[in-house]
Amino acid sequence: MSLEHRVAELLDALPAATGRRAMVTGANSGLGLETARQLAVKGAEVIMTSRDLAKGEAAREQVLADVPTAVVSVERLDLASLASVSQFAERVAADGRGVDLLIANAGIMALPRALTRDGFEAQFGVNHLGHFALTGLLLPALGQRPAARVVVTTSTAAFYGRIDFDDLMAERSYDRWRAYGQAKIANLLFARGLARRLKDAGSDISAHTAHPGLVYTNLQRAVVGSGQPSLPERIFLQGITPTVGQGPQMGALPQTYAALSPLATSGDFWAPRILHTRGRPVQVKGPASGFDEGLQDRLWEVSERLTGVEFQLRG
After folding, report:
1. Cβ distance 252 to 31 under 8 Å?
2. Which one-letter DSSP state was computed for residue 16?
3. pLDDT by residue (tens digit) across 138-170?
4. CA-based nearest residue to 130, from 283, 26, 257
5. Which of 174, 180, 216, 257 is catalytic?
6. Catalytic annotation on 160?
7. pTM over 0.90, yes/no
8. What phi and psi values does residue 30 have, to the nearest 5 degrees?
9. What is the sign of the dihedral through the CA atoms of 21, 25, 27 and 30?
């Protein structure tokens, strides 16, 4: 069976998303583009966000080439800027239509140390804090639709990641893979903490986590092109990942399943079936640290303080 037929078969197993409005961050390439395409195939209206509107429009044309009847638009969103996040959320609120699905997909990986516009270490700032603020600001829009879902993208790096609260912005010591692991476990802690808070508030909004397995996308290309990869990293990223892993089409399916599957439950974790590396999406347990409510609460408090966004949770 060809890859296209396999993906189509797995998508066919999901219910239609006609009438639902989805937002996908980082939708101009890689997993975000494929997730936007899959949601469009299922009939959802899709808002594709991108830092670069020209790249976003080019991605939109790709979706329309595959799904000519799709309702797809592009909005500028830079998760490295809390001002951009706030402006985007204000535009969404202004149209009064609400949001059914928020796919917090965008991210950066293992790059040299840099800062966001607000002074945060870039991987933690973009991958976690930007999405934390975005979700909090969009909660009223999510609350306008029945059974809305938030899907936060993490990776296998969450299994080794830990939060260094004593040096959260890596000012004393920076290791790009350690910083990436911190951002990815933060994604999981955030989603599980959000699921718990939504349940306690009596809300019908649900929160989910997904990771794509081993996938070669622009994230890996950026690491290779950063000028810093070691020989083992090159072997893993350019040799093992494309060979053992899977393409973005399959890698996007855990996000799409978390967004649409009737089997999804708030707080769950979707990943490829075969050793978290490849294959059809299934629900998995995930790392034990992701269940630590003390860690969830501490990260939540820090994130609210850093972003200035407080979640207005209600049923």
Report:
1. yes
2. P
3. 999 999 999 999 999 999 889 999 999 999 999
4. 26
5. 174
6. no
7. yes
8. 55, -135
9. negative
